[in-house]
Amino acid sequence: MKTISDTSVWRVLTKRYDLTEQQATLLKTYAQALMNWDEFGNLTAITHERDIVELHFDDSLVLSKFIDLNQVHTLVDIGSGGGCPGIALAIKYPTIHVYLLEVKRKKLAFLEKLIQELALTNVELVPLDWRTFLRKTTFDIDLFCARASLAVPELVRMFKPASPYNHARLVYWASREWLVPKQTALYIRHDWQYHVAGRVRRLIMFQHPVKENE
User: Fold this and answer.
1) Which residues on adjacent β-strands are paired with residue 125?
2) Could you give the number of structural domains in the chain?
């Protein structure tokens, strides 16, 4: 069984995001769960402790550098997979109700066990695919997050007139080289650059243009 041992990378993360001792402990438990679960199946390609901290946790929490998450009440993590950014943000911001949208059984099993282990009362699993979610739910959602899940043309279906979510914002984690699909350019409100683990990446925020000033 792998164990948490790289204290330096945790110190950096804790200082960068002003984590409490309890939040840091929960993230360490989360990292331990990712490392141990992966011994029994390919949950994520990122399995080393430092990479989990930098490429999962730091890459998730960086959203707080661009959006005031204290003003966000509800968030959907689309195609949550191993739980980032949703779980990491739920730990840092316990007042946000986080919905984890995931359909793969192995990942759902991991997420369910993780939520119980971390005692996260502000996290809820939603075992639906994206199109079904748009058709069959009417939650009150402030912010959608998509990190290594669906392509942008699929994601912006949420802005269709009939969608109950066309008022919400969508943040997409993109590479430095990502090119904006022509049919989605009108929805872009911000294109932020950031650095993680020595790499330049981008956060793209989408919003329906009609809703921008409402």
Assistant:
1) 100
2) 1
Q: Is residue 89 part of a domain?
A: yes
Would you say residue 84 lies in a domain? yes
d(CA 39, CA 132): 32
Domain ranges, residue 107: 66-211
* Cis peptide bond prior to 85, omega within 30° of 0: yes
Determine what percent of the chain is predicted with pLDDT higher than 70: 92
Mean pLDDT, residues 146-157: 94
Sheet order of strands, 188-196 included: 123-126, 97-101, 74-78, 143-147, 169-175, 199-207, 188-196
What is the predicted pLDDT for the residue at 212? Answer: 45
**CB distance 157 to 183 below 8 Å:** no
**30 within some domain:** no
Task: Give tens-digit pLDDT for 103-113.
Answer: 999 999 999 99
Pairing status of strand 169-175 against strand 188-196 = unpaired
Identify the band that residue 213 occupies on the pLDDT scale cut at 50, 70 and 90. Answer: very low
Residue 108 lies in a domain: yes
Kindly state the DSSP code that residue 168 receives in the 8-state scheme: S
Q: What is the CATH number of the domain that holds 108?
A: 3.40.50.150
- Alpha-carbon distance of 137 to 132, in angstroms, equals 8
